[in-house]
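Notes to self after the Tuesday call (sharing in case useful).
The group wants a holo model before anyone commits to mutagenesis around the pocket. I volunteered. Ligand is nicotinamide-adenine-dinucleotide. Logging inputs and output together so the record is complete.
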Amino acid sequence: MRYDTQPTASHFINGAYVEDSAGAPIDVIYPATGAVIGRVYAATPAIIEQALTSAKAAQADWAARSGTERGRVLRRAADLIRARNEALSVLETYDTGKPIQETSVADATSGADALEYFGGLAGSLTGEHIQLGQDWAYTRREPLGLCVGIGAWNYPTQIACWKAAPALACGNALVFKPSETTPLCALKIAEILVEAGLPPGVFNVVNGAGAVGGALVADPRVDKVTLTGSVPTGRKVYAAAAEGIRHVTMELGGKSPLIIFDDADLENAVGGAILGNFYSSGQICSNGTRVFVQRGIKEVFLARLTERLKGVVMGDPQDPEVNFGPMVSAAQREIVQGYIAKGAAEGARLVCGGAPEDRPGFFLPPTVFADVTDDMAIAREEIFGPVMAVLDFDDEAEVLARANATEFGLSAGVFTRDISRAHRMIAGLEAGTCFINSYNDAPVEMPFGGAKQSGVGRENAKAAIAHYSQLKSVYVRMGDVEAPY
Ligand code: NAD
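Result:
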């Protein structure tokens, strides 16, 4: 073991690690071997109470600081994260099984970007002045108060930071619950934020499964809930938040279309399809898992894709040469294998992959199905694993209608050399985050989020500020009040 994966304690509350072993034990499993590498205990009601009380108590003082002062803390945390990128990436790889090749450039680094970006923005958050003749009005941009964040298991460090950075920049306090599958990384972010000068209680981490999330969401002190997870969970959390008319951000699942026209640069299109289906072993919400390929180039696309997939190096994700890791858990691999079986049973043509290799851990090779039709389960449902469905199409209007025929609307991509067609297609696609001649880029400067059932609200960019703050409008009369009696 290159790293001590047993956390100091299960939770981080009010600036310190806290343990309560009365909670249900949760084993931390290294997906590459199946070995237990740590244990945490789910938050008990006492732990949940402690976290919410600390956050509530700390929020007002934090909000009373100037934005520049808050931002300085976030930017210091970003620097600490960058300085410790190697250790944090190793931990992320243990937590998720994603290759160190990925985690060292896409996880802690992306978290640091968010803290740096929102740290920079914090000092310039303002309301506005509105002149109304002699009278005038102004708006104050105020924090929402106490936020609860709930994370998925695919990007534990990034999700913690993408929620913490705008929430804290706006002057909120946050209680974050990571996925029970990946409980390690967010604790490190909490440690670093406190080291960077964050007052105790402003950012807290409690571990546990859905019941802990449910208890947090239902607490009357909570002003905002931000979830990254599946649509079914989103539905439950949204409904629970609605009971208290709480603000929500929902970052949910998808079944996004990636449309490749016959005039596209083939190598780039294949590269986009690979990134949009197999990065992180396919465990990315925005993946373009319905790959629509214009009929004339289908076979050449499949041949080139198959050739390039020979470059997959599957193995120990801590090995820097490895570029393809295991699935996060045995349960997730089983779900994905179920879909592979369905694809074959429904008549799709298996082009490559399909069967797990005989090795420890939860590995499943990149799997490509061709001749997929819109009605097949592998074309309709989110699989969340390394399974690409290739569908044929003939013309623009047809593919646009088929691409939109889904309840999801997270992302969409178009590969073409025809710029007018590219923009026309994007305008017609029902998705929150789109790509032209690229796939899955997620810079902090660009809003990220879903349309339709893929979500509500936006993370990243200036757009996130609107989801972590509220406006207070103030009318100021300069003359006398004229009342009728
Ligand atoms: P999940 O929905 O099973 O769990 C997400 C989180 O919700 C976990 O922390 C879980 O403990 C918690 N939870 C479950 N039930 C709850 C309840 N009733 N109340 C409160 N919290 C509850 O999702 P997952 O399997 O961890 O992650 C995969 C899913 O996340 C996929 O659908 C994927 O598309 C989605 N995802 C979306 C984004 C995005 O930004 N749009 C990013 C990553 C993952």
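Two things stood out.
Residues 327 and 362 are 5 Å apart (CA to CA).
The longest strand covers residues 135-143.
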